Amino acid sequence: MSITPAHDQAVLRNARHTQLEQAVADNHRQLFDLNAKALGGTVHSAEGLTYTYTRSNGSAVTFPSMTEEAAGAALDAMMDYYRTQQADNVGYWSLDPPSPANIGASLLARGFQPGWQPCWMALDLGTMHTDYTVPDNVQILADNHTSVNRIKDLPYAGNGGALSDALFQAYPERVQRFIAFREGAVIGQCCLFFTTGPDGIAGMYNVGVIPSAQRQGIGKALVVAACRFAAERGYQYVMLNANHMGRPVYEQVGFQFIGYGCTWWLIGWRYITHAATPDMVNLAEAAGKGDLGILERLGTAFTPEELDRPLANGMTLMQVAAHLHQPAAAEWLINHGVACTALDAWDLGWKDRAADILATHPGEADRRYFDWRGTLLHIAAQRDDIALAQLALDAGTDLSIQDKDHDATPLGWAHYFNRPAIIALIKKYMDNN
């Protein structure tokens, strides 16, 4: 498909929110597919499920729309393929709600981990805030030729971002990179990926500035330059996925929140080395869907130890039930000898039971959760759950405990995620103790 700079080209116009969500999904899907092909990878489609594989740049499952009846077999075929390729980094992307609605249970049962929520934002270019100038000594250029691969500390440099160098070479008409220079040195970048037709938009990706140049308005300058370029090419909408730190910058330009998405991630090789049996997959799906009939039919053949054994994603059946808010399934597991932690109880809405667990089990407040080994207070900071933070503090949690991935205390997490209320709670607790 050729992208031409014509103001009357067929692109999305005067869209409703649902159309914008479909447009951003289509933009991501086409980008992931072309990026995989440009890198010498593969793209597979069957039963409403499209997934890519690349050895060097991760793989993606791109906004499927499957029926309940077809989902299990399609996912099993996909998992078999990823096992043969020994894929170790697969992202499953979906709009919210996904299709089918309970796909999360099927993915967790097969080894995927819960992911983060994409935050879709859209800018109607006719409403863009244009009263902005580029910072002194900074030059913003539309530049598809300068390599940014070796720029130290530049976010999304090389093939680590959504748009690889191979994509720029193979499909130059579909992409445009913007680079921020200061005294000839690259200090930031931003990329656009174009789709046309009824869902045609300019998707914005790889927005990043080196640490020493951040908080100087350079990221905003890159975003404005890219948006002006898209407007010149006849687009009405630019859309992106914002993180919590970047969202205020986009809002200053005029981007508006559209909706959230869903992601799940297949990371590492445990889904290969610890592949679940079909019965355990069905049991985990039942825990996530609250299907007591299947739990009773299959679960009674397992010992309590087997029912409490981590799945390929590191989660237990209880954690699956709690994550997907299935209290009846959780009660079935408890009645069959499975332990319930304070976090499990909290996530199931059993606030009093969570407090009782912390009160009656010394050390439970310092239990380490997930592969990254965070405490309840780490998790509260991540979620911005003030009530959970207070519960952990009331239980006397150890504030010096650091997580495994970032070597940070709960207070460090609260600062990173900009959780002022939780920061204040922790500091008050420290002052009183």
From TrEMBL:
CDD domains: NAT_SF. PROSITE patterns: ANK_REPEAT, GNAT. Transmembrane segments: none annotated. One of its GO terms (molecular function) is acyltransferase activity, transferring groups other than amino-acyl groups. It comes from the Bacteria. This is GNAT family N-acetyltransferase. The lineage of its organism: Bacteria, Pseudomonadati, Bacteroidota, Chitinophagia, Chitinophagales. Keywords: ANK repeat, Transferase. It comes from Paraflavitalea soli. SUPFAM superfamilies: Acyl-CoA N-acyltransferases (Nat), Ankyrin repeat.
